[in-house]
Amino acid sequence: MALTWQRPTVDTKFHIDMEWWEENQRDIRVYIRDMLCPECRMAYEAGGSSDEVDWVDEQTGEVNRVDSLWHSLRTCCSKRPNYITPNMPIVEAVFRTFLANGNKPLSVNELYELLDRRPPQILLRILTAGPVYMGIRPVYQ
Hints:
By secondary structure, the protein is an alpha+beta fold. 41% of the residues lie in helices and 13% in strands. The protein has seven helices and five strands, in the order E-H-H-H-E-E-H-H-E-H-H-E. The radius of gyration is 16 Å and the shape is globular.
């Protein structure tokens, strides 16, 4: 069964497409490392961080192995008030939102509720017009 392309709407779910990072020969860990708070960055640079750590899903109790940088960002850095700022470019704010929520797909309407930065229709246009930035793409099933 072939998938048919559908124009994204404000209800279409988006996420960070990890295949985009591979296809473009970019390392998402470099971007994540640059977003770490000073304390987490010092711990990482001191070698106190392995590649993977155990992560317990708070809703299901399931234990998964996750990237240690991403774990630090989710559990510490993203909780700080300057993680997303009002003067930050909107695409970066969206990217950081996906990193903070473990890359769970969100619709443009949901992103708008979280960021309150641009009306949903404008945010949709930013995410879909032109080239893909930071791997943010619609989720197609």
